[in-house]
Amino acid sequence: MAMKEKSCVAIAADRRFGIQAQMVTTDFQKIFPMGDRLYIHLARLVTDIQTVVQCLKFRLNLCELKEGLLSEKRFGPYYTEPVIAGLDLKTFKPFICSLDLTGCPMVTDDFMVSGTCAEQMYEMCESLWESNMDPEHLFEIIFQAMRNAVDQNAVSGMGVIVHITEKDKITTRTLKALMD
Amino acid sequence: MALQDVCKWQSPDTQGPSPHLPRAGGWAVPRGCDPQTFLQIHGPRLAHGTTTLAFRFRHGVIAAADTRSSCGSYVACPASCKVIPVHQHLLGTTSGTSADCATWYRVLQRELRLRELREGQLPSVASAAKLLSAMMSRYRGLDLCVATALCGWDRSGPMLFYVYSDGTRLQGDIFSVGSGSPYAYGVLDRGYRYDMSTQEAYALARCAVAHATHRDAYSGGSVDLFHVRESGWEHVSRSDACVLYMELQKLLEPEPEEDASHAHPEPATAHRAAEDRELSVGPGEMTPGDSRMPAGTETV
């Protein structure tokens, strides 16, 4: 999930990688940095997550990052739903958005969620998010929302990682949650 | 006698199956519709997925289970009880559809109580298992899902039976049932002995369920532990599964005074951190170094 405040953005993900019911690892990376102040979180099918991230990094390095990676695969899509959070390079204005698997962007001013426990995450964000929070408060809110949402879902969890992006620094915290 | 009338008791040579059981095929479904297909398409999502285990040893029968009730990937209840007492010397672990297990255990409790009144003593564990499997086998093909281990102490000593809703009935020393059972069997097979002590048996059961809750998504919450002895069943403990798993992991950690062995991983980690500045997207790798901004990292 990602949350936005007036001067910073936060993005959080769980750390479980499993195949159906079986948990494979508890330290899987799902949030990837794209540049100085931009993070992208990819959920759903792991093989497509890895493919999309490698394509994005390739295009980023070639300075060719433009729309179309997901919509190119309209009729054989990547099964991944990115959530993007970051600050504008020049104005440092916070920005969050989410894409469905064909690349349709949804931009909001408060929060964005994606993954197997999307409904539970929406419930938690709706009740906890408020405007004009400072970064510490935002971290607490996003962590509590994430932790309680994944605890209600059997196939998510095993720890939470949170990145808070501000104008002059990025804070990353990895936290334990229920490991069952 | 009033009780005789209520029970519709008949003399033994004319006794048929209990008239209180619904007749096979008597489900309320629309006319012209096959019940199984109807339930598969339109039926509600039922609670499923669990880890339960039971094993027989010198001092009785141990039954242990997790407490997570899940409907698909949604955790419906993190603190349910999957070990149901039938009478003072008989317990059952339940797995499959929670609603079916609860219903059929109530039917079993009623039928065993009626038999106790008729015959003057409680039926043996083998008879109880036979009764349950016979009752459920009449509904074979109608999507009942009850996988249970009956744990009891009767005139023959500690007894353990596995009963499934298609009518399967097996006697054994160790059973584990549910989506987490492969992980529990791995731990049980390694540590089980018939002549172990009570404390060893408790530790083995807790360890097996804790490992299963860690690996299996549909098991979790807490670990319930029950012990059936000659004097009756006893609820030994309910422990949080995560806390239990972390304690078990701490027991496996190496001693801290071996400094030489800790020095070796250091260079490898530093080397991998340098490589992470490249395009590494392997699982489990943190890449704060990709950002050219100052990054603070904390692990809690």
UniProtKB/TrEMBL annotation, chain A:
GO terms for biological process: proteasome-mediated ubiquitin-dependent protein catabolic process. Gene3D superfamilies: Glutamine Phosphoribosylpyrophosphate, subunit 1, domain 1 (3.60.20.10). It comes from Colobus angolensis palliatus. GO terms for cellular component: cytoplasm; nucleus; proteasome core complex, beta-subunit complex. This is Proteasome subunit beta type-3. The keyword Ion transport does not apply. Keywords: Cytoplasm, Nucleus, Proteasome. It is found in: Nucleus. SUPFAM superfamilies: N-terminal nucleophile aminohydrolases (Ntn hydrolases). InterPro entries: Ntn_hydrolases_N, Proteasome_beta_3, Proteasome_sua/b, Proteasome_suB-type.
From TrEMBL, chain B:
It catalyses: Cleavage of peptide bonds with very broad specificity. GO terms for cellular component: cytoplasm; nucleus; proteasome core complex. It is found in: Cytoplasm; Nucleus. Keywords: Cytoplasm, Hydrolase, Nucleus, Protease, Proteasome, Threonine protease, Zymogen. Its main location: cytoplasm. The active site is at T50. InterPro entries: Ntn_hydrolases_N, Pept_T1A_subB, Proteasome_bsu_CS, Proteasome_sua/b, Proteasome_suB-type. Pfam families: Proteasome. Residues 1-23, 254-300 are annotated as: Disordered. Belongs to the peptidase T1B family. The 26S proteasome consists of a 20S proteasome core and two 19S regulatory subunits. The 20S proteasome core is composed of 28 subunits that are arranged in four stacked rings, resulting in a barrel-shaped structure. The two end rings are each formed by seven alpha subunits, and the two central rings are each formed by seven beta subunits. The catalytic chamber with the active sites is on the inside of the barrel. Incorporated instead of PSMB5 and PSMB8. Component of the proteasome complex. This is Proteasome subunit beta. It comes from Colobus angolensis palliatus.
